[in-house]
Write a sequence for this structure.
């Protein structure tokens, strides 16, 4: 997605974006001093004024900023000079700075500090943002100028960076209906407006279910739960006015360890059902009807453009190119994943029978008995491992890895010198280790709280590009670790530690950018996850283990025998992990390659899973009614498969390091990693970039080896 549209889509859960202009005239005086529009001041080339955020500033800021951007676009479109890259594309790249700033705050409110008050604002602004976006994508004069520059470039190619920019911008405008008739453009814009409202409603419904469903436990219901979890649960209950109770919140960070350790099977079932029924409770927050509407509108919209289905339209500029290729990859892995699940369930059932549990393994038993199998097969206790995974040490491990591979140095910024939007947020200065030159700032928002969406993610408040002066990058990582009781350490699971590295990989992708134009910061969805997935591999390297995986009380390095157990168990439970992911990814693609006219999400999900022979002991990682990747916007719609596509690249690239003389810290491979896979962002075709790094295309064999699955026989 090019930068013009990215301003509208990114940083929020809204993906179809848009215009306003409504009441702008009346707001002009009111917004002149709006801090959400003001240029950023202070150190590091200016930083967001997070300390001046107020919800009442959001509407006037967004409305004014959208109008200012539209005014910029009109000036470009009405330029009477013959269209050139310099008088059309360059000013487009520079336009909309006020909106970029306003969207930074909007994104923080949407993802990190949401409130009922903001959600009302969000609901009101969503259709206006959509209208604004359509006014750009459907500006006939603007598109004709872009088209002229594009067609001229085919006769007289531009320098590499400029050619890539015009190709991406022209493609994006064409995909957004710029070539449609006036009547079809009108309907296209109407659809986008309707979708934006539905995306916002879907997202807020999920957030409401996460906030509204909290299970409070008494002391006699804590069987099996680790002490660290108990203390965090007590803290969570106290913060909600339930002193003396223990809160299991309706988020993955709370649900997952509860299902892993609680010996109370009836409570495990309750927590499991509550979590996986988000958006599916037949109440005011139910999302099933919204899904049906979204699918119909998406299908109608791409039909206007001449595509058979939404997935065909969406994947044309992804690495997969078409839904058939994406589905083919998934179906190569699916049978091996199912076979492994069968083995995993048999192992779990055997233990349950040995213990005379008198049960048949159900979905709410999977994590609990998988942990028992892990301990029995590998003598590996996840809770023991957590004692060596303390958040502060892991953060230092991130910095060490970034220093070794990217030559970055991280130093904490003095508290109060840079504004933050919540007291939990910490900030680090990033510099080049050799020159001392400033690279940017890194913000970390680590803890779960009310008003913060679940999961983990990365974003930028300011990206690097030469055109606008190469200002310092402002990158952030956001997690949902359970905040500990005062004085207690934050201990995380191995999976959560990998996710921490994963999201930091996105931040490094932002921080290492070396591009000329803003549009080149855009990403190709089934490629951008590759860089972050690759960084996960450094968590288990010897240098990180020996320096940073230390016991939170004794500071002793994690014992070699425990590390060996972790490595031996690296393919453990891959049946579960792969199947729950693939079920969601396949479902996403099925939704977007099927005529949506008669789709009932409840029945469609049920029937599709039956056709896939989905094991009854596992549920989709993201059931349809809370599948925010796909239905709270369009970033991953028909593209959730991209994590697997990227993981093929990840597995193959990690073998390049493993084979190098210096292993995962080999300087030459690291140089190529930065030069070809991180720094160019979208300045280079992803397939070409990977070939420059690896010397060939990626192969699926490495992925299968990583997961302990049989390598497919090409014959």
């Amino acid at each position: 997605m090019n930068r013009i549209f990215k301003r509208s889509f990114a940083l929020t859960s809204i993906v179809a974006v848009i215009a306003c202009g409504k009441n702008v005239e009346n707001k002009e005086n009111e917004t002149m001093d709006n801090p959400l529009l003001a240029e950023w001041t202070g150190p590091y080339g200016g930083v967001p004024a997070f300390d001046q955020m107020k919800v009442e500033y959001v509407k006037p800021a967004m409305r004014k900023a959208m109008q200012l951007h539209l005014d910029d676009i009109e000036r470009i479109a009405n330029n009477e000079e013959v269209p050139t890259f310099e008088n059309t594309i360059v000013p487009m790249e520079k336009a909309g700075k006020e909106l970029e700033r306003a969207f930074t705050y909007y994104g923080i409110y949407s993802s990190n500090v949401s409130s009922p008050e903001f959600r009302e604002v969000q609901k009101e602004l969503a259709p206006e943002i959509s209208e604004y976006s359509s006014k750009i994508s459907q500006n006939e004069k603007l598109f004709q100028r872009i088209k002229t520059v594009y067609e001229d470039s085919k006769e007289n190619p531009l320098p590499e960076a400029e050619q890539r920019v015009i190709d991406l911008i022209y493609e994006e405008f064409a995909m957004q209906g710029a070539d449609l008739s006036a009547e079809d453009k009108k309907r296209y814009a109407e659809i986008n407006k309707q979708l934006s409202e539905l995306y916002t409603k879907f997202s807020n419904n999920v957030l409401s279910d996460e906030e509204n469903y909290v299970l409070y436990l008494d002391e006699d219901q804590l069987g099996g739960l680790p002490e660290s979890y108990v203390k965090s649960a007590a803290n969570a209950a106290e913060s909600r006015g339930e002193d003396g109770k223990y809160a299991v919140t309706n988020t993955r960070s709370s649900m997952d360890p509860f299902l892993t350790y609680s010996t109370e099977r009836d409570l495990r079932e309750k927590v499991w059902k509550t979590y996986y029924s988000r958006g599916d409770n037949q109440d005011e927050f139910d999302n099933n009807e919204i899904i049906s509407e979204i699918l119909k509108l998406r299908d109608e919209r791409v039909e206007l453009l001449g595509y058979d289905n939404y997935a065909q339209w969406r994947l044309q500029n992804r690495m997969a190119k078409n839904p058939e290729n994406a589905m083919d990859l998934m179906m190569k892995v699916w049978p091996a994943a199912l076979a492994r699940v069968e083995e995993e369930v048999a192992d779990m059932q055997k233990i349950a029978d040995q213990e005379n549990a008198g049960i048949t393994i159900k979905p709410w038993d999977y994590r609990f008995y998988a942990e028992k199998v892990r301990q029995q097969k590998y003598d590996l206790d996840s809770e023991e491992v957590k004692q060596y995974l303390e958040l502060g040490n892991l953060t230092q491990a991130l910095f060490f890895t970034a220093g070794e591979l990217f030559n970055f140095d991280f130093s904490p910024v003095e508290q109060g010198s840079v504004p933050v939007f919540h007291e939990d947020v910490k900030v680090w200065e990033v510099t080049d280790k050799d020159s001392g030159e400033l690279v940017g700032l890194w913000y970390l928002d680590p803890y779960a709280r009310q008003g913060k969406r679940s999961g983990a993610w990365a974003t930028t408040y300011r990206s690097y590009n030469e055109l606008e002066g190469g200002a310092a990058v402002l990158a952030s990582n956001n997690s949902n670790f359970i905040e500990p009781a005062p004085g207690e350490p934050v201990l995380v699971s191995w999976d959560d530690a990998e996710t921490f590295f994963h999201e930091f990989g996105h931040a490094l992708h932002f921080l290492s950018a070396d591009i000329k134009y803003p549009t080149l910061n855009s990403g190709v969805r089934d490629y951008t996850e590759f860089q972050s997935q690759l960084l996960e591999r450094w968590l288990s390297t010897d240098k990180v283990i020996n320096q940073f995986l230390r016991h939170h009380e004794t500071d002793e390095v994690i014992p070699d025998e425990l590390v060996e157990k972790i490595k031996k168990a690296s393919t453990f439970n891959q049946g579960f992990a792969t199947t729950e992911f693939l079920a969601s990814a396949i479902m996403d693609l099925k939704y977007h390659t099927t005529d949506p006219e008669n789709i009932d999400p409840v029945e469609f999900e049920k029937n599709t899973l039956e056709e896939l022979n989905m094991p009854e002991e596992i549920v989709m990682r993201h059931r349809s009614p809370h599948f925010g990747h796909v239905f709270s916007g369009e970033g991953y719609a028909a593209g959730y498969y991209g994590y697997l596509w990227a993981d093929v690249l990840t597995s193959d690239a990690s073998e390049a390091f493993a084979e190098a003389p210096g292993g995962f810290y080999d300087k030459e491979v690291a140089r190529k990693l930065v030069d070809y896979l991180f720094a160019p962002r979208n300045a280079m075709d992803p397939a070409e970039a990977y070939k420059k790094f690896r010397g060939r295309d990626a192969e699926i064999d490495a992925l299968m080896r990583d997961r302990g699955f049989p390598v497919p026989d090409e014959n």
Notes: The first strand starts at residue 215 and ends at 217. Residues 3-137+139-175 form a domain with the Neurolysin; domain 3 fold (CATH 1.10.1370.40).
